[in-house]
Amino acid sequence: MHSYRPELHVTAETGILDAPAGVLLDGPGDGTWHLFYQYRPTPEAPGRWAHVVSEDGPFDWEVCDDVLVPVGGETELRAGSVVAAARAGDVDLYFTSVTAAGTSIQKAQLSDIANTCPISDDPLAIDPRVLRLGDVVSDRDDRVRFRSPCVVPDWESDEDRDAGHDGWLMLAVTGAKGHPSPVVLTSADGESWSFQGPLGFDNDPGFEESAVVVGPRILRLRDEVDGEIYDILLVTLEASGRDISGYLVGTLTGTSFAVKTPFTRVDQGHDFTRPRNTNVTPGTVAPEDRYRQSVLFGLLNGVGRGDEPLTHASMSNEGWANVISLPRVITLQGGILFQTPPPGLPDAIARTHHARSWTGLCEVPEGATVSAQLIDAAGNTAATIAHTGSELVLDRSMNPHHRRDAPARARLIEGDSDSLSIFVDGSCVEVFADGGAIAMSSRVYIDGGCSDIRLTTSGGAEIIRGWHREPVSSQELPDYGEPSPGE
User: Fold this and answer.
1) Is 49 helix (H, G, I), strand (E, B) or coil?
2) Pick from 31, 119, 351, 390: most CB atoms within 10 A?
3) Are residues 194 and 227 in the same domain?
């Protein structure tokens, strides 16, 4: 029987993956991807940081020794941020340290990241290249429990963003667990941090003032329509036992975010949450391309903090829980975030044992539908994806593992043609529609693995072009023809 474990997505070897912690891309071209994640090797163990590396594209992940583990009075370590250090080849790790007294933001440094990472026989070994540097942000004045840091380069000038960067900007969260408050800090050297104040909004952010806002992250993109560089604020709202993650587009000046695009869901499937930005080392991206695009990762677990990982089919059958999404290449067009799969994914699927995908360009008039059935090993339908031209629907309720789940739905943009891309990797299903304007990701436990993606049309819908990708036995990859729009 095929495993629920994906081959292209990142999972913990054993135990529970709690969240992506930080991502760094090192080197031009395809570069080397360094992904760090917070996990527990057993359900009872405290949280720590793992490190995986992939060269020539973010698909072939190699597990390195862990980089951070609780010490002294720490009870666990939580997610944070990863940035290039001042000395070339070193990387700064900002993370949340949890003790009985509360939380603080700590800093560690990983040296010689370009060298081969150590891989020990002991799965709990710690990378000897990591040096913990200590506390950088802790309780001050009336602010307590600093946590969940996101660190990015600060602007040299708020008035002229083309002038480049100087110093560092940090978004973090303070306050009680049930009443978090996003805040802004700045630093000239990445070690001494000045508290600027709580994050505020000049215009309506698109959610209530009382909303529980966690995991703030920020990145920058140049809008392809007006040519301006904007801040993309990523946040997760905790409500009624669910995580709803989204983005806001605008400009952060000091502690005030001037909203251009209010809160918009970044993914409208069942299970995408806690999005994380990707930082880069100097020289990785050409200056003229720095804000043209970026890359997002997220956790495929829509329940978030209220999750019960021991109930997961992957945990009970195979000893692991939770997955990090495929990377998404993101661009900004007219204040809307577009997300597309990373280059090289079709060839990566061909090198797997069980992953599959279908990509097509369709015409779907009003009242028509293009449907895709994900077929399990026994020939049963494990989930369906339906494109009606105006709506995208992912339904897994016919699957015995997901009987009580309502279908995920998303409104589609109007256009002359409709594109659809479906990727199935183990128990991960990720869907992109209308050139990346809509993304939809869900965990689907497909017994025996996905044996086929079966397409049908109704009501006058037409598939203009379509491509199946599936594993091949030889090293010579098939010619799939021209990629569809959005790939």
Assistant:
1) strand
2) 31
3) yes
